[in-house]
Amino acid sequence: MNPSTTEEPVPEVIMTVAVALVVFRLHEIHSLKDKRRIVKSLVEKSRSRFNVSVAEVADQDAHWQASIGIAAIGNDGRVLNSLLDRIIDFMDALGLAELVSREVELINVSY
C-alpha cells in the first residue's frame, strides 16, 4: 500500500502589519517639558499627514533621546515598507532632532 500524501494548503497572507522604531537624539534640550514639545510635534505631524499610529514608546524620562513607534496595517508589504520609509524621512526632514536609528519590521498574518 502506498501511503497517501496529503499536501497541506499554503497559508494565504491576508494582512501585513508594519512597525518601525525610530530613535532621535535631542540636542540643546534641558528639560522634559522641552522634550515633550518636540515629541508631540513629531507625533502629531506624522499622524495627521500619513494617518498611521504613532507614539513615544520608550525613553520617556530621558530628555536627550526620544524613541517613537509607528504602526500601519495593509495587504501589501512593499507599499507599507515604502510608507514607513516616507514617514521616517518626513520626521527627519522636520529638523527637530537628529535621527540616530531606525528599525522596520513587516509581520505577515495568514490563515
SSE arrangement:
Blueprint: E1 13-25, H1 32-50, E2 53-58, E3 65-74, H2 77-93, E4 98-110
Antiparallel strand pairs: 1-3, 1-4, 2-3
Task: Characterise this structure.
The chain is of the alpha+beta class and 111 residues long. It has one domain: 2-Layer Sandwich (Alpha-Beta Plaits). It is built from two helices and four strands. Strands 2-3-1-4 form a four-stranded antiparallel sheet, with helices on one face. Helix 1 crosses helix 2 (77-93).
Give the key terms.
single chain, 111 residues, alpha+beta, Alpha-Beta Plaits, 4-stranded antiparallel β-sheet, 4 strands, 32% helix
Summarize it.
The protein is α+β, with helices and mostly antiparallel strands and 111 residues long. It has helices spanning 32-50, 77-93, and strands at 13-25, 53-58, 65-74, 98-110.
Q: Tell me the name of the CATH class.
A: Alpha Beta
The CATH architecture designation is 2-Layer Sandwich
Rg over C-alpha atoms, rounded to the nearest angstrom: 19 Å
What is the CATH superfamily? Answer: TT1725-like
- How are strands sequenced across the largest beta sheet? 2-3-1-4
Major beta sheet, specifics? 4 strands, antiparallel
Q: β content, as a range?
A: 35-45%
- Please mark out the parts with pLDDT under 50 across 5 or more consecutive residues, or reply none: none
Q: Give the class from helix and strand content and strand pairing.
A: alpha+beta
If helices are DSSP runs of H or I spanning 4 or more residues, what is the number of helices? 2
Number of structural domains = 1
Mean pLDDT: 88
How helical, in percent, are the residues? 25-40%
End-to-end distance: 33 Å
Shape: elongated
